[in-house]
Specification:
Layout: E1 10-18, E2 22-26, E3 33-37, E4 58-69, E5 72-78, H1 95-104, H2 118-121, H3 153-163, H4 166-180
Parallel strand pairs: 3-5
Antiparallel strand pairs: 1-2, 1-4, 2-3, 4-5
Length: 181
Amino acid sequence: MEPLPELYAIFQGEVATVTDYGAFIKIPGCRKQGLVHRTHMSSCRVDKPSEIVDVGDKVWVKLIGKEMKDDKLKLSLSMKVVNQGTGKDLDPNNIALDQDERKKRSFRDYTSQKITLEAVLNTVCKKCGCKGHFAKECFMQPGGTKYSLIPEEEEEEVAAAGHGGDKKTNLADEPSKKRKK
């Protein structure tokens, strides 16, 4: 196998072909070529790589990636992190490359997922034993009395009829007579 340059090595190569998405650069000392994508040609936006380089041009490039894909070694090169006049590394710590990688990451969209509050609704208060709230939100004082809902009038009548007490039945009838007046 041919000796390839080390990762992040800088060398001068010759432009072999220019495409819509970048330029292929001949690597000196081997038959391999690497791709300078149009996003790595300049720090400015490049729409047409043919406006930047022509076939046969000598350019300084930095090897920024090696990838095995379909049993072929693909090499990624960058021109924007190398001074094209002197060949000096403009990004010696590869910080700009890390920032470019972070920009490419995609973020998941969670807006379609619904939020449910079941955890709050299914809780039981440790202070009062009621459902639907936490102890820190409890309205009951420690050692205080518990309050329950007042039963409806119909429930009172059914309860009174079940006990068979005439006094309770008469008391239950009185509020209904008052309403009619």
